[in-house]
Every structure is written in C-alpha cells, then in structure tokens.
Amino acid sequence: MIYRGEDIIIRTISRMLIPFIQLYGLYVIMHGHYSPGGGFQGGVILGASLILLLLAYGYQDAKSRVPEKLLTVFSGVGVFIYAGTGFLCLVLLGNFLDYAMLAKILHTDAAHARSLGILSVEIGVGMAVMAVMVSIFLDISTGGVLPGEEEEKQKTAEEA
Amino acid sequence: MKFFGFLITLLTGAVLIYGTLDMPAYGDPDSPASRHVSPRYIEMTEIETATPNMVTSILADYRGYDTMGETTVIFTAGMSCIFLLRKRKS
C-alpha cells in the first residue's frame, strides 16, 4: 500500500523535479537517432518520474494523474504502434517493418522514411515501457488491491 | 537421484563449454561477423537510414523484428502482473 508521505521537503522537491525528469525522458526518446538512448531508456525515465510522483504523494492523491486504466491502454497502444508500423509497410507493398515503403506516404526519400519509421517505433516502445513499468509498480506495491477502489465500491453499495 | 541430476548438469555444462571452444576469440577482426555483417552496417547506416547512431538503426531497423518481440515481452510482463495480482470484487 502506498500512503501519502508526510515530509513536505520530499513532496516539494519531487513536485519541482518531475517536469524536468519527464522532459529529459522525452528528449531521450526523440534524440535516440543522434545520441545514446531510445524508446526503452526514455520510457523507463518517464515511468520513473510517475513512480516518484506515486511515492511522494501516495496513490490516493496521485491517481487522477496516473489512472491505472489509462496505463493498461497505453501499454497496448505502444505495442500496437510498433506492430501497426510494420503492417503499414505490408499494406504499402513492402516487407514487414520495411520502413523504406513509408516514403510513398511521407513524401521523402527512402533513407529519411526509414529514419522516421525508426522514430515511430521508438515512440511506441517508449509508451509501452512507461505504462508497463508504472503498472507493475502499482500491482506489486499494493498487492493488487488498489486503494480507493474498495471505498468507492463500499460507497456505491451503501447507496444502493 | 540427486547424484544423477548433478551428473547430468555437469555433463551438459561440459558439452556447452566444449561448444564454446570453436567460437572466434572475443573481438577477433577475422571472425565472420566482423568481416561481413559489421562493416556492412558501419558503412551503410548513414546512407540507408539517415541515422547517425548505428545502435539505434540496428536495433529498430535492421533488427526491428527482434525489438518488436522485446516490446511484446514487456507488454506480456505487465499483463501477467495484472492478471495474477490484481483483485477485483464483482
């Protein structure tokens, strides 16, 4: 179970740091073509920023920013973007994941189409990794019983 | 029975180590991988994919199918955690 921490220093510092951590995570994903990094690393950094938010504020207060249903959707959408890029190449009469075929719809030459294809799958990987990291953290730290859910269910049961 | 299992483990380990004896030395420039595959990637990455970072172009383009499997493994890990741990009251 993750409770809200009482330490104002931790809460303030993490509130100030989280936007910069997320910006750095996005930078690592987008700059994977030119420097070390890419979808996996950037996704883990983004996931770590959300885990820091959960640790500092507790699930009860942070769940509006990290809704677990959205995390499940994100992990699926990430894999879908990756496989979808591959199938798009199939539709454009190429091999599976042959990004050079994307040149037909992107109006660039084959080399730059492959560069953009790499970027698209990296974004998919980043989304999936970020969502799965936070989702596993939530499941393991709460033992599978997400706090708040039970109280809401009790409320609805009492009302009914 | 315990001794039997130990013997099988030892034998399998010995066979595996014997198998590594034929492998080229670590970083050997004359090994087949260094003579055919690596130079091809090093020379053509910039021209074919317009991506200066060779690691990224190999990971996501030349070996894209492998990376898709890796992403699916991570996705499966997340889904298994949800299915095994999360409790829902219906």
Overall description:
The complex is a heterodimer of chains A (160) and B (90). Chain A is mostly helical. Helices cover 74% and strands 0% of the residues of chain A. In chain A, helix 3 (68-91) runs antiparallel to helix 5. The longest helix of chain A is centred in the C-terminal third of the chain and has 33 residues, at 110-142. Chain A starts with 7 loop residues before the first helix and ends with a helix. By secondary structure, chain B is mainly α. Chain B has a domain at 30-90. At the A-B interface, helix 3 and helix 5 of A face helix 2, helix 3 and helix 4 of B.
Number of strands of chain B: 0
Amount of beta strand of chain A: under 5%
Q: Roughly what percent helix of chain A?
A: over 70%
Tally the beta strands of chain A.
0
- Please give the count of helices of chain A: 6
What's the mean pLDDT score of chain B? 89
Uncertain runs of chain B are none
Order of helices and strands of chain B: HHHH
SSE run of chain A: HHHHHH
Largest interface, by Cβ-Cβ below 8 angstroms: which chains and how many residues each?
A-B, 44 and 32 residues
Radius of gyration from the alpha-carbon trace of chain A, in angstroms: 20 Å
- Broad shape of chain B: flat
Principal-axes geometry of chain A comes out as: elongated
Question: Largest sheet of chain B at a glance?
Answer: none
Structural class of chain B: mainly alpha
Give a quick rundown of the structure.
The complex is a heterodimer of chains A (160) and B (90). With 160 residues, chain A is mainly α.
List the helices and strands and how they pair.
The complex is a heterodimer of chains A (160) and B (90).
Chain A: H1 8-30, H2 39-62, H3 68-91, H4 103-106, H5 110-142, H6 149-159
Helix pairs in contact in A: 1-2, 2-5, 3-5
Chain B: H1 2-20, H2 32-49, H3 54-62, H4 64-85
Helix pairs in contact in B: 2-3, 3-4
